[in-house]
Amino acid sequence: MYKIGLTGGIASGKSTVSNWLRDKGAPIIDADIVAREVVEPGTPGLAALAAEFGDEIITQEGILDRPKLGSIIFNDEAKRKRTNEILHSYIKQRIDELAHNFADEGYKAVIYDIPLLIETGWHKEMDEVWLVAIEESVQTIRLCERNGYTVEEAKARIASQMPLTEKRKHSQVVIDNNGTLADLETQLNHLWQAKGHVFTKEDV
C-alpha cells in the first residue's frame, strides 16, 4: 500500500483539500474522525482519559466533555502531550484497520489525512507527504472568521503548532492555499493529473 500523508496547520484548508480528493475517488483515512471514534462512550480510549484527568471530563451522558478537557490541556504542554500519548495507540490501531480494509477493496494507495502527521512522527511511515500551506497572516484572518476568535486567541493557537517552515522540510508536495478557492482547485487539478493514477482501484 502506497501511503500519502496529508497535513496542514489549523485553518489551512486541509479539510477542503481532503474533501476535493475524496470526491475525485481517492480513499482517505480521516484521523479527526478516528480520534472521535476512539473516545466514544464506553470505549477504552475514553476510560483511559478519565483515568488520567478525572471523571469530570465525562458528562452525565457518558460523553467526553471536550471543552472541559480542552481547558485542562490547552495551556499545559505536558498534559497535551500526555493526551496524545494515551490516544495514539487506539488511533493507530483503528487507522491500520481502515488501511487494511481499503487494501482488501483493491486500492493500492491511500491518503492519511492527519493534522499532526509530522509532529507525531507519522510522516516517517509515509511514502509521500502533501502539505497544505498558508501564511500566518491569512491563517489568522481565516481562523478569526471561522471560529470567532480574537486575533490574540488565533495567534496563540497557531503558535501552539509546529511552524510551517519546519513542516515544509518533511513535505514532498506543497499545496499553496493563500489564494482563492479557484486558485486552490487549479493546483489540485494539476496535482490530480500528475498523481491521480495511483488511486486506481483494482479488481479483487
TrEMBL record:
InterPro entries per the UniProt record, alphabetical: Depp_CoAkinase, P-loop_NTPase
Binding site for ATP: 11-16
GO BP of this protein: coenzyme A biosynthetic process
Enzyme nomenclature, EC number: 2.7.1.24
Protein's pathway: Cofactor biosynthesis; coenzyme A biosynthesis; CoA from (R)-pantothenate: step 5/5
PROSITE patterns assigned: DPCK (PS51219)
Localization of this protein: Cytoplasm
Main subcellular location of this protein, as a coarse class: cytoplasm
EC main group: transferase
Highest taxon, organism lineage: Bacteria
Keyword terms of this UniProt record: ATP-binding, Coenzyme A biosynthesis, Cytoplasm, Kinase, Nucleotide-binding, Transferase
Catalytic reaction list: 3'-dephospho-CoA + ATP = ADP + CoA + H(+)
GO MF: ATP binding; dephospho-CoA kinase activity
Keyword Cell membrane: no
Gene3D superfamilies with a match to the protein in the record: P-loop containing nucleotide triphosphate hydrolases
Function: Catalyzes the phosphorylation of the 3'-hydroxyl group of dephosphocoenzyme A to form coenzyme A.
Family membership noted in the UniProt record: Belongs to the CoaE family.
UniProt protein name: Dephospho-CoA kinase
Protein species of origin: Veillonella seminalis ACS-216-V-Col6b
Taxonomic lineage: Bacteria, Bacillati, Bacillota, Negativicutes, Veillonellales
Gene: coaE
